[in-house]
Amino acid sequence: MTIHVKRAFKYRFYPTDAQAAELSRTFGCVRKVYNLALAARTEAWSRQERVSYHQTSAMLTAWKKTGELAYLNEVSSVPLQQTLRHLQTAFTHFFGKRARYPRFKSRKTSRRSAEYTTSAFRFRDGALTLAKMTEPLAVVWSRPLPEGAKPSTVTVSQDSAGRWFVSLLCDDPGVKPLPARGNAVGIDAGLEHLLTLSTGEKITNPRHERRDRAALAREQRRLAKKEKGSANRARARLKVAKIHARIADRRRDTLHKLTTRLVRENQTIVIEDLTVRNMVRNHRLARSISDAAWSEFRSMLEYKAQWYGREVIAVDRWFPSSKLCSVCGTLRDRMPLNVRTWTCDCGTTHDRDVNAAHNLLAAGLAVTVCGAGARPQRSTPDGQSATKQNPYGASRRNPPLSGGGEVNSAHDGGMQRNPGPFRSYVESWAPEAVTDVDDLHAAPVAALSALLDEPAPVATTGDPLPPLWHWLYFLRWPAQRDLGADGHPRHGHFLPPVPDRQRMVAGGRCTVDEPLRLGERAERVSSLGAVTTKRGRSGELLFVTQRHELRQRGRTCLVEEQDIVYRSGRTSTPHTRAALDPSATARPDGHWHLPLHPDPPLLFRFSALTANAHRIHYDTPYARDVEGYPGLVVHGPLLALLMLELVRRDAPSRQVLSLSYRLRSPVFAGEHLLARGTPRDDRADLSVATHRDPAHATAEVTFTER
Question: For this structure, is 272 an active site residue?
């Protein structure tokens, strides 16, 4: 997906006396107009009337014509219009219940700033000249602007330490998604150590405020002795402000370096949804918590992750990450802050912070698999943390599991927990590799081509098989008596021996050395890649990676890994979801588009083509009344195939070298889904969207060199 980032580049500048006087007048006029407009709108609000931006703009014209406010004509009109737009934005947030009622600006405490649009400044040959000024600003260009950058807005500000800054907002084409990585990290925020990573690394808390505490206290004592309103008090206040600014600058620099490193090194970052505003009410820890700047750390982490194609997951603040043993899952009753290490009943000795980071990582990965944490947390609906995302109005007791339609149960409430930890079931489970042979006949390809409304088979005998179409082969058809009530096999070579087993396909990866050829015999060697146990919000989870190596003519053609998640439990009571909207459509972002309107016959045919007997794909009463879905679930593999169809149709000359896909949340029969793709130099970003979610499934494809 194409990312257009508007980025603000902030620089220090040193105005002349005339420029400083002009800017100070502008700041005062901006504050005056804002307060006048707010007063007018507040008075109208008391009469149950609303005043729009256009009405306040007309008021501004009238104010300029009065003798009392004629000085408003002495400054540029653009910052005055912009402050009215800012007031309109504040009221929009207030009416949307996203902010408090707007407050009046203070001459002493409010931020001094003015915003100029393109009509009020000239940027040419590295020189910036503002309206009502004859000379350019003496800007210290500490870093270059993007090549060919054209600022859309310029914001001039002065901080409490008396420093002048100019911020230029422009498009930054240099911000591009980083290459995908397979690693994830859990982060536990603290005070003794600023961050503790699930890798075991501890990042020291620099305690910037403590370094300057003595100097700050000394200058604050001197300030308190100065007479209010005197020049000496103004000078003393400036010294205090400079110390605060130095502390803030150091803290911000540390957080920028730290968050940039975390985003570069990790694909998924799991943090805790801390309520800092409540935590600082503890007056013993308030100073240290404020100095740690956890909220600023999270804000930086989220916007950088959005820029560079990473994912930040916020785990519910009530998740007992410190009290939960990351090995056996035992939950302790209490864990005082002075306990830094503890030993579980299973014999494992934990470092409190490292154990919490491990648990956060496990919970975040479980949430991702279960379809909640698909975007940075502050972009999620209702502002909830990822573990509380419940689609279709599901109750907190019954959060639905997702995974692209490969979920055996959609309920958590009434689920019977496994009698013991998963480790006891799988510690001796080591299935041997299995080799299957199949002749890649042309009939399945012709059948899937017809299902996708292709006018002719996409490949015939001797042609290369499109990526992922090998899923039509090496199928296993168990005896009818071996199927469970949900349609899945009760037993299988690579099915873990977990009671009341329920399955979710989370995603996978595939590397293509050379395409498989249709009409030739192929060999598939399947083996167990990895088995790990984690504890999520809904209970213990088993992560299984199954590896397939496909060969033809004695050569390895492709290697595939599938990530499957299991949990133990069953549903005791059905839970019906809200109705779907079959008329709504997704926004056609990206360059490549492929719409699909899956109906029950299409899902039935795909189930038959892939030997998938799971009843949620073709049995509507079962899907609704037993599994609790609002309708039939579209197969996760079908979503992955649909994304790869974009490459085959829109870039037929490009050969796929590797691909990775992720199934995030389910799509249902009757919905209008849209596969979207954005090509880049040597890769493409793909997704499946509906009106409900822009990324039910995502994929990244890399191509061989031309």
Answer: yes
